[in-house]
């Protein structure tokens, strides 16, 4: 039977915790002070609060997935977390192009590259024991 070695490098766990904290901070900002995170939205428009709450829950979910993966020290869970984060950031890059938002394109691109690097190191550094 194969077991994943619980010795995931500490730096991978630290980066994962930072992504979890980032997800929780963005979620909190969106719920309590969305005007600080979104400058170009009319908050009086019908349905905007609903969309902001959905976005906040998405960010909370990202944070929770990363935190749970770190607590369990699970290679498969960390892989799923970073794959989810990568796909989410690719979507944000596309949205950035559609909305002509260079800051979103740059930020999401950086996060996507970090996700790819993390996936590479998780695969390379965490060995499967027989």
Task: Report what the structure shows.
With 130 residues, this protein is mostly helical. The chain has one domain. It has helices at residues 10-32, 34-37, 48-72, 75-99, 102-125; strands spanning 3-4, 128-129. Helix 1 packs antiparallel against helix 3, helix 3 packs antiparallel against helix 4 and helix 4 (75-99) runs antiparallel to helix 5 (102-125). It starts with a strand and ends with a strand. Mean pLDDT is 90; it is low at 1-5.
What characteristics describe this protein?
single chain, 130 residues, mainly alpha, two-stranded antiparallel sheet, 5 helices, 3% strand, disordered N terminus
Distance between the termini: 6 Å
Order of strands, main sheet, comes to 1-2
Helix count?
5
Rg for CA atoms: 17 Å
Order of helices and strands: EHHHHHE
Helix content: over 70%
Binned strand content: under 5%
The number of distinct structural domains comes to 1
Quick one: how many beta strands? 2
Which SSEs are present, and which pair or pack?
Elements: E1 3-4, H1 10-32, H2 34-37, H3 48-72, H4 75-99, H5 102-125, E2 128-129
Antiparallel strand pairs: 1-2
Helix pairs in contact: 1-3, 3-4, 4-5
């Amino acid at each position: 039977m194969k077991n994943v070695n619980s010795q995931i490098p500490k730096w991978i766990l630290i980066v994962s915790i930072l992504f979890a904290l980032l997800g929780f901070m963005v979620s909190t900002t969106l719920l309590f002070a969305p005007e600080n995170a979104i400058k170009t939205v009319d908050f009086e428009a019908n349905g905007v609060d609903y969309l902001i709450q959905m976005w906040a829950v998405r960010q909370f979910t990202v944070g929770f997935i990363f935190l749970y993966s770190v607590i369990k020290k699970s290679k498969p869970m960390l892989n799923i977390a970073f794959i989810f984060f990568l796909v989410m950031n690719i979507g944000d890059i596309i949205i950035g192009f559609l909305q002509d938002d260079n800051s979103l394109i740059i930020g999401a691109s950086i996060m996507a590259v970090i996700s790819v690097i993390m996936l590479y190191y998780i695969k390379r550094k965490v060995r499967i024991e027989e």
